[in-house]
Each structure stands twice: as C-alpha cells, then as structure tokens.
C-alpha cells in the first residue's frame, strides 16, 4: 500500500464522493456519484468501485478512510444512529474492508468534516471547533486542539437528535424523526426538513430543493421568504444552545445548506437573542474546503491524520 496516496470516501444520503490526496493535502482526483437508494449491498459495491477506479487512474494502491452518517456501535460494531437508515444494523466498516481486501478506517462524517476544517481549514487557528453538518441529515463534530471527540458512547456531537430549543407552540411536538422521537433539530434543519416546511406552508404537493427555495425568496416569493426566515431563526436557536453549553472558539457550517450565503450574516446577527452572555464573539464560518470538506477529512484517517488525531 502506498505511503503517499490517501483516498477518502464520504458516504452521504444522496451522494457518495471520493477524493485522493497527496501527502501535502493536494487533491489529485475527486468524483461524485448518486447514492444507491435503499440498497445496502449496492452502496458497499459503489464505494468499492469508486476506490478501484481512483487507484486504477492514479496507478497506486492507497489507504482508505470513510466518513459515514452515524457510527459503528462500540459494543457490536454494527452501524447505528444513521439518518441513512439502510446502513443501520450492518457491519459497514467490515463489509467495505472485505470488498477492498484491506483494512480501512471509518469515522462519523461530522467528525471528518470538523477535523478537516480545524486542521487547515476555516478554523485552523481555533482551539475548540464545532463542525456542523446541514445536509440530508444534521449532526456535528467537536474538535479540541485538533483532536476529534468521540465520547464514551461514540455519540459526541449528535446535536441533531436533541429537541429544537425554545420551540413555539406551532413547532410542538414537531415532525417525526427516524430515531423514533418528534421535534429533533434534524427534522427542522436538514435540507429535506426545509423543503418539507416550505411545501407545507405553501400548500404545495411537493417542492424543489433548497437552492430553488432560496432563489424564490430572493425573487420576493412570500412563502419562500417566510420559510427561509423560519430556518434562520431555528438554526440560530440550535447553535445558541451549543454555544451556551460548549462556548466554542468557532462554528463551521458544512453540508449542502451551508451554501446559503446569507446564513453567515443572519445567524451571528440573531444569536444575541438566545446566547447567555452580554457579548457573542463566536464566529459562524463557511468551510474553507467547501461542502466536500468531510471527504477530505476522511482521507486523513488512515494511516494517520495529517494535523489531527482522534480521541476516544
């Protein structure tokens, strides 16, 4: 196996991305494909094919790290807490390793994202960083002194499965979540959550994706404007609760919804209404490495992490 080539895979709910990095972190190759819908075996095979194709093109056998929603149970090794529910109950890490014929490293996608941005990304000068994923699902990774915290139960940063803070009566009990509860932050702040909220308010049978809703709001559509404003307020409340507990040096947003440029003006402006302090200096930052930062963090998981380490 090459000591030079590192491959990272980001296994998302809608897309699987692969990247190959040289030792200094320069991307040599990057590809995305759609995630096979509700087909576990096809997902494992797609990951294997992407790695095979990357190695064939670059002419080297690489180390492989995989970022995934949820995490393997420390007790059983089976996936749990994944918004991509097809993964739950499967030994994903073992199955990908078997498909590739080598040992791999598998880590929660939010931890990969946070490691990337805390190492040499938007928050590289911060001691305590929260990396928030706003995508098909919602979660976060916590990095302290460039060490990602897993926690005793491997659930550190599972921010998306707490209740939305300070809910209005209209937000109770909240949408049903795949975890079995109602009103989780994820049900409000995921990309699909925003789309559902807009469709419900606009009385539309279906709605286009987040970019279309943002464009409609920019064009003056009242229902879209109201949905985006609700999203800003809900995200502000949810991040304020993180600040009130952890008081991080920086928060970096990732995932598809992080591409909404106005977030980085609206959220800091609104935090003062909810943070328990007379001043709020916590920056809310876009990712330096874009919405694919997580795949870059995954590439550094094996055989070592460039500027960070995992902490159990």
List keywords for this structure.
2 domains, Nucleotidyltransferase, domain 5, 5-stranded mixed sheet, alpha/beta, 312 residues, globular, 9 helices, 6-stranded mixed sheet
**Strand runs, count:** 13
CATH names the topology of the largest domain as Nucleotidyltransferase, domain 5
Q: Radius of gyration over alpha carbons? A: 19 Å
| Second rung of CATH, namely the architecture of the largest domain | 2-Layer Sandwich
Kindly state the percentage of residues in helix: 25-40%
Biggest β-sheet strands, sense, barrel: 6 strands, mixed
Order of helices and strands: EEEHEEEHEHEEEHHHHEHEHE
- Could you give the order of strands across the largest sheet? 12-11-8-9-10-13
What's the SSE blueprint?
Layout: E1 6-11, E2 15-21, E3 27-34, H1 40-58, E4 63-68, E5 71-72, E6 79-80, H2 92-100, E7 105-108, H3 109-120, E8 128-134, E9 138-144, E10 147-149, H4 185-189, H5 191-202, H6 210-218, H7 222-246, E11 250-254, H8 263-270, E12 284-285, H9 293-299, E13 309-311
Parallel strand pairs: 1-4, 4-7, 8-11, 10-13, 11-12
Antiparallel strand pairs: 1-2, 2-3, 5-6, 8-9, 9-10
Helix pairs in contact: 1-2, 3-9, 5-7, 6-7, 7-8
Structure, explained:
The chain folds into 2 domains: 6-111 and 292-311, Nucleotidyltransferase, domain 5, CATH 3.30.420; 124-288, ATPase, nucleotide binding domain (Nucleotidyltransferase, domain 5, 2-Layer Sandwich), CATH 3.30.420.40. It is built from 9 helices and 13 strands. It has helices spanning 40-58, 92-100, 109-120, 185-189, 191-202, 210-218, 222-246, 263-270, 293-299, and strands at residues 6-11, 15-21, 27-34, 63-68, 71-72, 79-80, 105-108, 128-134, 138-144, 147-149, 250-254, 284-285, 309-311. The longest helix has 25 residues, at 222-246. The protein is globular. The model is unreliable at 303-312 (pLDDT under 50).
């Amino acid at each position: 196996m090459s000591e030079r080539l590192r491959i990272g895979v980001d296994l998302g709910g809608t897309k699987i991305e692969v990247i190959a990095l040289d030792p200094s972190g320069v991307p040599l190759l990057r590809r995305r494909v759609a995630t096979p819908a509700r087909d576990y075996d096809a997902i494992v095979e797609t990951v294997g094919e992407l790695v095979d194709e990357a190695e064939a093109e670059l002419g080297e056998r690489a180390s492989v790290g995989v970022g995934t929603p949820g995490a393997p149970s420390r007790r059983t090794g089976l996936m749990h807490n994944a918004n991509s529910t097809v993964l739950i109950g499967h030994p994903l890490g073992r199955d990908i390793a078997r498909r590739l014929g080598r040992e791999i490293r598998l880590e929660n996608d939010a931890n990969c994202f946070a490691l990337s941005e805390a190492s040499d990304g938007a928050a590289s000068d911060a001691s305590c960083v929260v990396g928030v994923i706003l995508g098909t699902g919602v979660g976060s990774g916590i990095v302290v002194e460039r060490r990602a915290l897993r926690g005793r139960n491997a659930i550190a940063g599972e921010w998306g499965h707490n209740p939305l803070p300070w809910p209005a009566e209209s937000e109770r009990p909240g949408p049903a979540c795949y975890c079995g509860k109602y009103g989780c932050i994820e049900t409000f702040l995921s990309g699909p959550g925003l789309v559902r909220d807009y469709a419900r308010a606009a009385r539309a049978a279906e709605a286009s994706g987040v970019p279309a809703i943002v464009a409609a709001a920019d064009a003056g559509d009242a229902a879209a404007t109201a949905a985006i404003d609700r999203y800003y307020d809900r995200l502000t409340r949810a991040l304020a609760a993180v600040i009130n507990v952890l008081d991080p040096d920086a928060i970096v947003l990732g995932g598809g919804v992080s591409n909404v440029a106005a977030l980085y003006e609206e959220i800091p402006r609104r935090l003062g209404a909810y943070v328990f302090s007379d001043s709020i200096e916590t920056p809310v930052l876009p990712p330096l490495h874009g919405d694919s930062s997580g795949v870059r963090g995954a590439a550094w998981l094996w055989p070592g992490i460039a500027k960070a380490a995992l902490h159990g």
